[in-house]
Structures are given as structure tokens and as C-alpha cells.
Amino acid sequence: MRLSFIFFLGVISFSSSAQSTFTPLNNDYSHFIERYEIRSGRLSNKFYSNVKPVGRKDLLELAVNLEQDSSAKLSKVDRFNLAYLQNDSWEWLADNYPSGMNEDKAHQNNTRKPFLKYFLQKKSDFYYFHNEDFDIHINPIFQFAFGGDDQAKNSPFTNTRGIEIRGNLNKKLGFYTMLTENQIAYPQYVRDYSRLYNGFPYEGFTKIVDSDSTKMITDFFSARGYITFKALKNLTLQFGHDKNFIGSGVRSLILSDFSAPYLHLKAITQVGRFQYINIFAQAVNKQVPVAKDGTEQIPPKYFTFHHLSANITKNLNIGLFETIIFGQRKIGFDVNYLNPIIFYRYVEGHLGSVDNSIVGVDFKYNFLRRFSLYGQLVLDEFNFKHFKRKGWWATKYATQIGLRYIDALGIKNLDLQAEYNLARPYTYSHNSTYSNFVHYNLPLAHPLGSNFREFLFIARYQPLPRLTLNYNFMMAQHGEDYNFINWGGNIQRNYNLLRPYDYNNFIGQGNEANIQNIEIGASYMLGHNLFIDAAFQNRKVNYPETATTTTSNIFSMGVRWNIGKRQLLF
């Protein structure tokens, strides 16, 4: 059974509720979502910021309400950012402002001199058409960046061109599509990562266009596309190729956007303080060899995911989640996992315990309009029977704790974030490539896979409305595999093969790699979603067993339009 059939099962009715598409899934937008929810002094019951992306209409409502809140003590930069968010989703202003006032707000997005009368009428849109029945926004995507890497045979660069289209029909059916054509030469450490996992961060199918494999110039298309609609007043459905990110941190140990887009049906049910998410997804098992002449289809794998989130108080949110990863079914998607309100672990056991079951909890506590404490706990086939025995290999779990501090030390628009993550060996892996937590060769959670501990420190300062300065620090200990032995760091590998022992396993075992990654960057917004970027990165990896250290110094400069920066902090 294919997901397209599942989708049509859901298309049974339309309500009169307005339906928007989702916000971009990038670091800038995630920062705004978290910062202004903290600044508002309460968690929203319209959208849940620990499930991203969020609806454009819902985020715009937060921006509008916060702008009118005199107790929020907004700075000049905050008001610029809130105006940016409103301009970026201006088609929903009429739903949030009284008549007349929304016209003034919409006017702030107008340009003085449109191009050829019909183009660039709005700061946020290259072209748009908007009336009561139909709304469409078309924007070009462009990114060109170049730099240097003292470890690479050729210099890194990025050359991206594309288009983004979003809109809605009768404010009931939302649609979104994005397509880019890319040529990228990544820094050397990313190329080394791609050789290990046979994939590039955030992307699916890629081609190496240079005959010299050490240069690794990649050429690929990147695309997303989906539709959204309200099946019921409290039920939103999304169907298409896209990504999701669960959590409030830099990393997600539950489900991140690090891998390629995947086909899925997502159902979002919101009732009062409760939100319930169901995802039925078809991933790609790129680890199975297929004919090189293209006569065989890359086999699919599947995962189902549900997440129940509740605003216990106005400042405390707690979420529970469960996911099952499975494949090798003659029928395709196993209909047993279509039940949206059952405990999946029961179903998995009922089918013979052949699939990979992962459960856990996440939380967020915002307080004093300055701080946000958040965390996650992931249990992967956790067995309490062996928990007390030291280092049992299948004591598989991952955990996260983090703190966000906005307007730190009384300095307006200086935001700090500290985060600690760890995952024990063999977490997310399984005895089948159809059941590991991998899509198109890349982890669906943390870039390092498992067998690691990591500390992150992020500083973001916006001294001027259009200028943003960033400092990213990562320090990690990662146990890598060597001599063909499976030490539990590469989640692509079968945990039953070449595992050295059952007990006395510990984080960092194997070929211990101590990673330090520091990035300093600046971005200046020339126009709406048009940025100039500059960055310097220093990355060191030390291997104590061999007393070797590799140091990379990477710099880059570039311009981008209507596209977010790729986060390569690993």
C-alpha cells in the first residue's frame, strides 16, 4: 500500500477554516520562533514550537500579538524582525488585524518602484497574485559562495539556482513547491563524511561530476513539494515531500532535517492545550545494492511516528513520542501501522518484533521571558532486564539537555544557547538496513549517528536590524569504527555483526575522535531575504590512540536570496 493511497483516505472533507503553508525550515526562522515565544511570556496553543516547521498563519499571529504587547519591551531590532515575519507571510495579515489596520501593515511591504509594473510589487515577493479565491507567491532562489580550505585539493564553492512557489486556493488548500539546481564543492571534512556514509548532508541523489574523486564536485537537484488542508476544524493534513524537526535545540535526537526530504502524510490534531502529530513516511534504503544501469528501483523503507504534546502550564510543555522503522514487506507500507492512536510497540511485537521501535519524551520550560530549558530522552529497544549489567550493548538511549538565554546579560538581541547531547553505542542501529534510523544513507536524528557525547555553545548577536553575528562552538567525543570492527558509532551497520562484546560497552569506544568545531560568521540583509554572508571555521580532530591531529581552516563569502544557510556543524 503506497502513501498516495493513505493520503486519499484522508481527503474526505474540507472545512471553511483558512489553511496556510509552513514556514521555512532553517536556523534563522527557528531562532525567531524560539526567541519570540520566550519573549511572549507564554507557550502558544496555536502552534507548538517544538514541532517544526510551523504554519505561516500561526507564526504571523504570534508576531502580531507580540508587537501589540506593551509588556514585552521590544527593541528596535525586535520590531524590525517582527515586521520581517509579517512581510514574509503578509497574505494572512487580514486574518490577524482589524479592518483598515491590516491595510496599513500590508502597505509596509510595498515597494516604491515595481519592476515592469507587475514584478517586485512587494518586498517579499518577486511576483504575486492575491484575491479572495486564489493566492500565489513566486520567488527566485539564488546562492553563490566561494572560499578556501587548507585541507581540500580544490576550494569549496556553492552555486545554486532555483524557484520557490507557495500559495492557497480559497484559503482552504495550501500548496508549496521548491526546486533548485546545485553545484557544490564541500569542505574536506564534509567530503570525508560523505565517503563514510555515501551521502551528503540534507540531500538525496547527487552526482560527482569531476573525474578526480578527491575534488568531489557534486551536481544535484533538490526539491520539495506538498499540499496542506484542513480536513476538520482541528485537523490539518500535509502530503508531499518535505522534512520535519522535533525539538527546540540545535540538534534533534528524535527526528531532524539532516537527511533528504521524504514522502509523507502528516496529520496535526490540535485541541486546546494538546497537539497530536502522526507521520506516515516512505524513506529510501540506499544501502541495498541495485543495478548500476538504472534498471532496478532503490527499495523503499518506511517509518511511522506519533508525538503527543501538551502545554501543562502556560510555560511548560511535555511531549511523548514513538516511532517504528520497518521495510521488506511484500505489501509495501504495513497497514498494521496505519492505526493513528495505538501503541506501536504492541503492534511491532504482534508482528514478531522484527522492526525497530523507538520511544521517548521531550520537554520545554520557558521562564522569566528570558530563558528556555529544554531536553529530550530517546529509548531505542531499551531492555530494563539488562540495565543493571555494566555496559550491555543493547542499553541504547540518547539524551539532550539545553538552555537558551535571550537578551543575555542585559544586552538587547544577544542570545546565548548551551546544549549537551549524548547517544550510547548502537543507538538507532538495527539488524537490518530496512530498520535502522537512516534515510538515503544519512541519519534521521544526529549527524554523528551514535556512540558520542557533545557540547554546543551558540551565540547570536543582532546589533543592527540588518546585521547578525554568529559564534558556533562544538566539542564532541565520538567512537568511530576501525579494523572492520563495529564499535557502535556508524548506525548503518548491523549491530549483530562484528560487535566485539556484549558487556562493558561505553561512549567513545573504538577509535576515539575528539572533535572541536568553531565557526564565526556575519550576515547582512541587503533586502528582504537577500543576504551577504561571511564566515570563518576552524575544525580540529584529535585521535588519542594514534596521537594524530587534523586541523582545517575554512573561510567563505557569498550572497544568497530566498534560501537559508546550510548548517555543517559536525
The number of domains is 1
**Main sheet record:** 18 strands, antiparallel, barrel
Please identify the top-level CATH class: Mainly Beta
DSSP helix fraction: 10-25%
- The name of the CATH architecture is Beta Barrel
3D structure, described in words:
The protein is mostly beta strands and 570 residues long. Helices cover 12% and strands 42% of the residues. The protein has 7 helices and 24 strands. It has an 18-stranded antiparallel β-barrel. A two-stranded antiparallel sheet has the order 1-9. β12 (300-311) and β13 (316-327) form a beta hairpin. It is globular. Residues 5-10 and 12-16 have low confidence and may be disordered.
SSE blueprint and pairings:
Elements: H1 3-10, H2 27-40, E1 51-52, H3 56-67, H4 76-88, H5 101-107, E2 127-130, E3 134-149, E4 157-169, E5 173-185, H6 188-197, E6 207-208, E7 217-232, E8 235-242, E9 245-246, E10 262-271, E11 274-284, E12 300-311, E13 316-327, H7 344-350, E14 356-367, E15 371-380, E16 397-405, E17 414-423, E18 438-439, E19 442-443, E20 452-464, E21 467-480, E22 511-527, E23 530-543, E24 548-561
Antiparallel strand pairs: 1-9, 2-3, 3-4, 3-24, 4-5, 5-7, 6-7, 7-8, 8-10, 10-11, 11-12, 12-13, 13-14, 14-15, 15-16, 16-17, 17-20, 18-19, 20-21, 21-22, 22-23, 23-24
Question: What labels would you give this structure?
Answer:
single chain; 570 residues; mainly beta; Porin; 18-stranded antiparallel barrel; two-stranded antiparallel sheet; 7 helices
